[in-house]
Design a protein that fits this description.
Elements lengths: L2 H12 L1 H26 L4 H8 L3 H8 L7 H10 L13
Length: about 90
């Protein structure tokens, strides 16, 4: 475990708000990676992808840069527009 992981773990135990923020950032990062991978697999620029999903290019950029909490509605809209199936999973915490 790296020093930063140890710090995050220790601080998360001490500060519930910090722990919630870390969890949300983990989710945002996973969404960012998945959306960018989908766009790249489709061979599209952010602008082209935005046109496909009916959102501004700036929204795509914010999602991919982990600067937005993408709602399930937004993710559902992206899935529908790109002929994908959105799945949501619950996994036990380690």
């Amino acid at each position: 475990m790296s020093k930063i992981d140890k710090y995050i773990e220790k601080r998360s135990v001490q500060d519930a708000d910090f722990a919630k923020q870390v969890e949300q950032e983990d989710i945002n990062l996973e969404v960012a990676i998945k959306v960018r991978s989908l766009r790249e697999d489709m061979g599209l620029t952010q602008r082209e992808f935005a046109q496909v999903i009916g959102k501004p290019q700036s929204t795509v950029a914010r999602i991919e840069n982990d600067n937005v909490n993408a709602s399930t509605k937004m993710l559902s809209d992206i899935a529908k527009a790109t002929n994908q199936r959105l799945t949501i999973q619950f996994e036990p915490v380690h």
